[in-house]
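Comment thread on ticket #2218

A.B. wrote:
> Attaching the input chain for the structure job we discussed in standup.
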Amino acid sequence: MSVTFFALCFILALCSVLEHSSSSENNGIKKLALSKENSTVFARKLLLASPDNEGRCSKDNIVIFQGPSTPLPSGIPTYTVQVLNVCVSGCSISNIHVRCGWFSSARLINPKLFKRIAFDDCLVNNGGALGPGDSLSFEYANSFPYPLSVSSVSCI
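C.D. wrote:
> Ran it. Output below, let me know if you need it in another format.
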């Protein structure tokens, strides 16, 4: 009986979140956010396929997800970062620059994937393009997660 009750509560909560997300549509982009108390909020943007937004390119097409992963043997926390081009078609994006503060890592990151080139300016994929639906990921180690957000891109 209690399993059924919890399953019903989960379904009701999910329906509530989906109903809320459908009302927050903005220019063909839907956002869905799920969160737990004292944890990271995970968000996902999906660019809806329609003739109006096909081929449009902007920094909003690049989404960065970040979450905790297994700590190093020394105990230093690690974080996995995924950079996605959520555009459906016709928008390859290059020269992706990210606001990253004084980003550093106790674990070596391949500089072709992600490197800090100046204060609050990190370059993704060595400036190369991420095609529609492409992604890349890397892991870094630091005592705290860096807030990462897209600052500029080039559309090709």
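A.B. wrote:
> Thanks. Noting for the ticket: The longest helix spans residues 2-22.
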